Amino acid sequence: MSHNFNRTILREYDVRGIVGSTLTDKDAYALGRSYAALAVSEGASRIAVGRDGRSHSPELEAALVRGLTEGGLDIVKIGMGPSPMLYFAVATLDVQGGIQVTGSHNPADYNGFKMLLNGRSVFGAEIQDLGRRAASADWSEGPGSVSEADVLDAYIDALMKGFDGQAYRIGWDAGNGAGGPALEKLIARLPGEHHTLYTDIDGRFPNHHPDPTVEANLADLKKLVADKGLDFGIAFDGDADRIGAVDSEGRVIWGDQLLMILAQPVLKEQPGATIIADVKASQTLFDRIAEMGGQPLMWKTGHSLIKSKMKETGAPLAGEMSGHIFFKHQWYGFDDALYAAVRLIRAVSTSGQTLTELRDQMPVSVATPEMRFQIDESRKFAVVEEVAQRLAADGAEVNATDGVRVKTADGWWLLRASNTQDVLVARAEARDQAGLDRLMVSVNEQLTKSGVGPVEAAH
């Protein structure tokens, strides 16, 4: 009984689609069968399964588990919780892999699956292979069993292990996502005074969209911090694997800025260590890591790609602009917003300064937000390639790790193709607005030459 997935749901890093339209229970079942076949072929026999707080997650989980068990895997269900809790279960239980049913930070009608197997993320070509397996019903058979495990308390214990932070007054916004109940348990253990927003799980996200990288979604947290005069605020995305933060003045501390703060204690303990950030991160971050005696490494955007690079380089810490923070130092190497929050409290404590003071000391630069523009799938990678060739002919200073990142006297600009959507992504950063304007002229010049309309940079 072969099954064809809608082509759009087999993404680079996960399987994700619109429930009832591009993603159904049948897809969940077929994915279970295909993943089981892959797992069994690698000698795996037991995997953990978790789910987020979306209304359709229980039925997708049920269909997934049916497929997994009919494919011969034994399943340990850990119930509803954040994606990092599933990653924690995989790292600590007697299992060889795991799947989280989650729509991450997508709108309420989306859902999907994040997959791990034998110490790696299942992504890229492997996801396409699962599609091929389903289409030809190249499946394993067997009577798998289902059991349950409660890992929440063990997870909170692990988050608190070695905690040496001071007491702060902190605001928290769980965005009605899957991290809410875990956050409530965590703050009961943390010193200080804690004020929370939207810790009740509601898959309709009635208060705001759970994506802390979009500044508009941090409005309620900023207001809470201002109204109560708090030291800082922390926000999570829908499945709590990405973190956002604001200081006491309500200024956003972006992913790369958080990494500057988080890297300091790590480099104190591991001088000369490699710290990884993605190609969208500020030049000031890479400079700062070098200043602190670390080895900065610029790598491709995408949590699966960053995790692979961490393994290869032995990096104790990595991060992305999107708020995925990966600690291998004293942790398991997976992206976890709750753990990143604990480490932020600890890092601010050991710095002897407030988060606001640390933010004040960061080099001043002006940057565009991430600018995204629709492009035909067939032209997506071609445009980036054309730009790369023209820049090479011009003798420009280009880093081609992921798209093109061009360094000039003014600063830098980036153009890359998104792995998850039919869009090109551009970003630029300079010391002042005049420099930024000059960089944007260069970006638009290149786009125009490739027949793509100019992109507006917000001031």
From TrEMBL:
Record-stated family: Belongs to the phosphohexose mutase family.
Domain Alpha-D-phosphohexomutase C-terminal: 370-445
Alphabetical GO biological process terms: carbohydrate metabolic process
Pfam family, one: PGM_PMM_II
GO-annotated molecular function: intramolecular phosphotransferase activity; magnesium ion binding
RNA-binding found in the keyword field: no
Keywords: Isomerase, Magnesium, Metal-binding, Phosphoprotein
Source organism per UniProt: Sphingomonas xanthus
Keyword Glycoprotein in record: no
Cofactor: Mg(2+)
The protein, known as: Phosphomannomutase/phosphoglucomutase
NCBIfam families to which the protein is assigned, alphabetical: PhglucPhmanMutPgmG (NF046027)
All residue ranges annotated as the Alpha-D-phosphohexomutase alpha/beta/alpha domain in the record: 9-129, 154-250, 254-361
